[in-house]
Structure formats: structure tokens, C-alpha cells
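Input sequence (411 aa), recorded before submission:
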Amino acid sequence: MQLNSDRALTKIVLIAAICVFSTQFGVTVIAPLLGEWVKASETPSFVSALIFSAFTVVSIPLSVSGGIMSDKLGRKPLIVAGLLLYAVASALFPFSNSTYDWIFVRALQGAGAGLFFPAVTALLSEVTSYEERGHALSVYNMGLGAGLAAGPISGGFLFDIYGIHMPFFFCVLFALLSVVLVLLFVHEPKTRLKRKKKRLSLSERERKALTLACVLIFFGIGVAAIMGALFSPFATADLELPDYALSAGVVIHATGIIGVILSAMFVVFVILQTGFGRLMKRIGEITLSIAGLFLCACGLIVLHSATSIPELFIMSFFLGAGLGATSLGTLTLASKAAGAGAGAEAGAIEQEQKQEQEGRVMGIYYMAFYAGIGGVPLVCGALSDIFSARLLFLGYAVLLLVLMVVVWKER
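Predicted structure, C-alpha cell format:
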């Protein structure tokens, strides 16, 4: 591993990947269950989108405030607090019997994530060098993608075999394991001094980089949100996926198939992270992000006309690759916009000033991240009830292609 010869730093990066795995597992574990929930309760697709988006509605305002608190109190306390809140929320899922209960618990999960994400990414910015940060974030993104991948397939099969309680038991277990690892092995690089709140100070280039990262991740992560909130109801109602008998007494239900397809998308996300990290050194963060938008658009176009399971797996490959490229490119761009570790030419005072605002910068990035996850499926869920899901997929693909061209010209 090329991050640093110091084993402690390598350990922090790996623990950060485990922590983000825990939170993202909980985000997508309910995705394959939403189709059955909507079908059984006879609620519109908008309700499914609202359950999924409640997570981000709370995360958006807490992302910036959580980042500010991590600048003042330190990264570790906010990471632990966010994970503990996330574990408590996950433990409440089995006792949620109505739509409003699910919305409330998802919102509570989002509150934990709003505290966790800006702090953990700001910590990674502090402990890694400017030049190697892309590699560190690719390892972090592998944990994120692995959690997103494990969630759908686990949710589908655990629900079929053990019922509604088991998927959320794993959410609690992973979150508490992450808390223990952080408490035992994560040490911040220095004691943070309490200072008066200062205005965010970024150069013109840093502001443009952060703005561009926020715009690209808003629309890019919106693809993952659409898949998480709308794909299961679409596949259940429109595609009418059949049950498959693997052997005597072993049957894969439609919920399990949907989980496998969604998980395949995020498996591709994980597998390609290392390759995208190397490619990013050659072509840059912006170009990699634009390429990700193009791949996402291709995947949505395939989904628009898909009628068979093989076509859905082709779609999952394109979307997984596109989300992986966009996520890594924009996260690295935003991290470098924070300015920490800008190189040997930066003086000690400048380094300290930059570290004091890392949390806020990453909070702004995650505010756009969660706005995309929360806002896009709400709008698309309402539009899919008015028009059709297939037309919605095609329309969003066209939107991504237009955005790709605009960003390419203005980059």
C-alpha cells in the first residue's frame, strides 16, 4: 500500500473504509424490500422515494454543522457519535410497523450519517499527503461501494429466510464494530485548539473546484438514489420478475433477484476503484467525473429498454462503473479544494488554517451529496407516477449527457 510507511496511517484508512461500509450497508439493505412494501400497502412510488429520501433530508443540514463541529471538537468524537446514532436508528427498524415509522427511523439514520461523513473524510485529508490522497480515498470508496453492494443482496435473502428483523440486526452489529475500532485504533494527528469561528477562506481555484465537485456529485449520486428508491418498485410492477427454483426447496424470489442486480452494480463500483485511482492520476479528477456521468447515462438508457435479466446486469455494470468514477473523482476534487497537505511549499501556519476548515469544506460536499440522494428520487418518484418509470430513466440519461457536455466545455 502506497499511502504512507507509517502503519498507523494505513490502519486509519482501513478503519475509515470499514466504518463507511457499515453506514452504506444500512442505506441499501432496505432497497429490495421497498417493492414489496409498496405493493403490499398499495402506496404510490412517491412514498417509496420518501422512505428512501428521509435519510438525506436530515443529513443535508447536519453535514455542514457536523463538519464545523468536527473542526472544533475533533474528528473522532463526531465519527463515534454518528456511528452510535446510526446503530440506535437501525435497532428501531424491526419495531417500525407503518410508513411513518420507516420515514422517522430513516431520518434518524440520516442524522448519524450527517455527523459521521464530513468528520471521517476530513480525518483522511489530515492523515494523508496531498499527492497520495486519491489512493487513500479510493480505498475509502471501496468500503463505501462494498457496503452499498452487500446491502441489497443481504436484505433480499435475509428477509426471505429469516424475516424483517435479521437485516437490521446486521446494521447494528456493523455499526457497533466500527465504533470499537475507532475508539481503539484511531488517533488524531494533533490536539485541536479551540478557536473563534472563522469565515471559510478558499482561493478562487479552490472555490471553483468545490463548486464543480458539488454539481457533479449531486446529479451523479442521483443515479444511485433513483436505483435505490425506484428500481425495486419498477422491477416488481413493470418487469414482473419470476421466482427461480435453484434446487428442490431452494427458491430465489423476485426480492432476492432485485437484490442481486443492485448488489452487482456496487460490486462493479468496488472492483474498479483501484483502476480508477490510477487512471485519475493520468486524466485528472474532472475528466474522470465526466466519464462517470457518461457511463451512468449509458446504463439508464439500457434500463429504459430492458426486458430481461441479462439486460439488467448489463445496466448494473454501466451504472456501477459510472458511479465509481464520479464518486472518486468528485470526492478527491473536493478534498483537494480543502487545501490540507497542499505540499511542502505550504507553511505551518497555512497548513493549520486549512485544517481548521476541512470539516466545513467536506460538509459542503456532503450537503450536495445528500441533496442529490434525497432530492432526485423525490422529484423522480413523483414524475414516475405521472409519466412512467421507463420514460423517467431515459429523461435522466439525457440530462446527464447535457451536463457532461456543459462541464467539459467549462472545465
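Checked by second reader. Residues 340-349 have pLDDT under 50 and may be disordered.
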